[in-house]
């Protein structure tokens, strides 16, 4: 009989791209992972992986086995969720991955709420610039607070459900003493010196694509994904920043925030969970807390309702309570 733990190792190696990366994520040595994969190879009697440059790739037999492994682990999760649903109570542990820009206004309030409502629940929170949806099928985390920019395609993988939290527009951030009142046209920033995230990030790509669609190539002398650094440069009058509204403290001194009326740049914040037929009460509780925190945080921004009402590019899923695979 196949060892389910070795199947999990195979899935992790494929997801991470190499034995070394899988070992690091599992807190194992590369040698230990290699030994277990060798044992799995002996069990099935055929090679499952092959070298592919600096990474590894599945053989045909490996692809077949991985497909079955995905279904096996899916069945295990369904069994766990079915028992949890019968029990009807929130569990004792859950893993959450979230973007740094969401911690202050969504994650921290949600965790506070969960601690009050479900004191037995321990939440392990991974804060990362790239909250990877691929962690969900691996079981590394149970809920991901992710983002999708409206200028970029939806890359949500199969087997993942997304639960919309809110639209989060980017605001123009300048020094407080800079002239200008009211919403701006993105094209007005053609003469500004911008501080932007690297073009390899979702936000950086969205800003560049939006500027190009507005008819100009932005001047970007400052490149950093650190929002605190972006705000510091804007406060000093050295650059104009484009920062998601949720990531900005509306009471922060020394800066002026202005919405973009024409050619806006927006990201959709969502909570993602593994797709299951039987609902998981624990993941459901986390999503509910994130949704409530997002709703409350939105209310702290005086411009939130106005720009939502004049939304020129509504999300294809307008129901905030609806899910999509």
UniProtKB/TrEMBL annotation:
<dbReference type="InterPro" id="IPR036388">
    <property type="entry name" value="WH-like_DNA-bd_sf"/>
</dbReference>
<dbReference type="Pfam" id="PF00126">
    <property type="entry name" value="HTH_1"/>
</dbReference>
<dbReference type="Pfam" id="PF03466">
    <property type="entry name" value="LysR_substrate"/>
</dbReference>
<feature type="compositionally biased region" description="Basic and acidic residues">
    <location>
        <begin position="293"/>
        <end position="304"/>
    </location>
</feature>
<feature type="region of interest" description="Disordered">
    <location>
        <begin position="293"/>
        <end position="325"/>
    </location>
</feature>
<feature type="compositionally biased region" description="Acidic residues">
    <location>
        <begin position="305"/>
        <end position="325"/>
    </location>
</feature>
<keyword id="KW-0805">Transcription regulation</keyword>
<keyword id="KW-0238">DNA-binding</keyword>
<dbReference type="InterPro" id="IPR036390">
    <property type="entry name" value="WH_DNA-bd_sf"/>
</dbReference>
<comment type="similarity">
    <text>Belongs to the LysR transcriptional regulatory family.</text>
</comment>
<feature type="domain" description="HTH lysR-type">
    <location>
        <begin position="2"/>
        <end position="59"/>
    </location>
</feature>
<dbReference type="InterPro" id="IPR005119">
    <property type="entry name" value="LysR_subst-bd"/>
</dbReference>
<keyword id="KW-0804">Transcription</keyword>
<dbReference type="InterPro" id="IPR050950">
    <property type="entry name" value="HTH-type_LysR_regulators"/>
</dbReference>
<dbReference type="InterPro" id="IPR000847">
    <property type="entry name" value="LysR_HTH_N"/>
</dbReference>
<protein>
    <submittedName>
        <fullName>LysR family transcriptional regulator</fullName>
    </submittedName>
</protein>
